[in-house]
């Protein structure tokens, strides 16, 4: 509090009748004490002390009296009323941890049972409402957006409803299960940033991220055991492959691809992907995805999560396929077909490698049949990455959440394949699998060197049987052609 000094009165002995009043002296002493020792004159007077004892009353400030007429009332300034404190700002305790934040957009206020007001921001769901309504969005547009028809999407929501549905609270209504599933499917299909996905579906960014992870976990935990399973009837699966490729006893084709990721914090060198680095011209990292496909293009076994720097043979050796079949060939009648990057085993058929020599006719015929069978798995993986574009781009999902996201894409792939959902030809532009076959020659040489004698004999026997079957068909076809020429000659 500042000190106010006024000019002293020129009168040598002014008359001030109230100066000797004890009550007035007490009031004046209290006022001067409140001024933090900024009093006027010498020592601050104490309560009950008379001002008449002062030698010079001119030391009193001018505003206590008038120069000509002794004042009858003290002209003290009127007290200034204090402004009331501002009302408390309602905050969203659920989203901001008790701190208020300004957001653009329309906001409403709701009250909890305890009487506390909470801001609830109204987010627009116009985009999703238009796609969800059959009257405003044709089925063809819905299929292009979510990679499946409305009927398949409705069945998917019914299967996941109990796992992803949430209950309403006193503060706000829960996001419907159908919108939750749609947000996750859209995110996996388009790989859009979370900011755009949240805007389309009327969600917060953090809420949208949580919903995507929850639905992915539900797909992996609830639907994966039923959607991705080994054939219940191996004979029927082998018959389908034999009709497609001519190879006997084959129940599945193996294909391994890589899913790009951001640079992990731990084991950086293990996830370094040389092929992606050469193609992208910058350091790239990935995880391996090994899938076994049936003759229809649906996955019967999926193994994901190993570092992308591992070879296809190393991924196969650590997968559940080796435990299922075993090195001793416990299930020799259930054969698998792999590319040249896989090792030759009694239960795994791989093509012959040239090794600087010319392949025989039997070996060439066998390689052609193996390529036809493995083309089923390669096509399935291509459709998988074409439908769910999040597998083509570097995902920012944490490493512990990455397996469930990739497994969710594989589950959705099987749902679409078994429901007969077609794929837009414009999406089939992913040719990474062709680039992954560049150095298969060295891998094939290593696989042949480590193959057992029983595996080599089993492959040679199948190739010989193919030649016998193909030779009989060739003889029959040539005999029919000779007979037709003989008949034509005699008819002329």
From TrEMBL:
<keyword id="KW-0539">Nucleus</keyword>
<feature type="domain" description="DDE Tnp4">
    <location>
        <begin position="256"/>
        <end position="414"/>
    </location>
</feature>
<dbReference type="InterPro" id="IPR027806">
    <property type="entry name" value="HARBI1_dom"/>
</dbReference>
<feature type="region of interest" description="Disordered">
    <location>
        <begin position="82"/>
        <end position="117"/>
    </location>
</feature>
<keyword id="KW-0479">Metal-binding</keyword>
<keyword id="KW-0540">Nuclease</keyword>
<keyword id="KW-0378">Hydrolase</keyword>
<dbReference type="Pfam" id="PF13359">
    <property type="entry name" value="DDE_Tnp_4"/>
</dbReference>
<dbReference type="InterPro" id="IPR045249">
    <property type="entry name" value="HARBI1-like"/>
</dbReference>
<comment type="similarity">
    <text>Belongs to the HARBI1 family.</text>
</comment>
<protein>
    <recommendedName>
        <fullName>DDE Tnp4 domain-containing protein</fullName>
    </recommendedName>
</protein>
<dbReference type="GO" id="GO:0016787">
    <property type="term" value="F:hydrolase activity"/>
</dbReference>
<dbReference type="GO" id="GO:0046872">
    <property type="term" value="F:metal ion binding"/>
</dbReference>
<dbReference type="GO" id="GO:0004518">
    <property type="term" value="F:nuclease activity"/>
</dbReference>
<dbReference type="GO" id="GO:0005634">
    <property type="term" value="C:nucleus"/>
</dbReference>
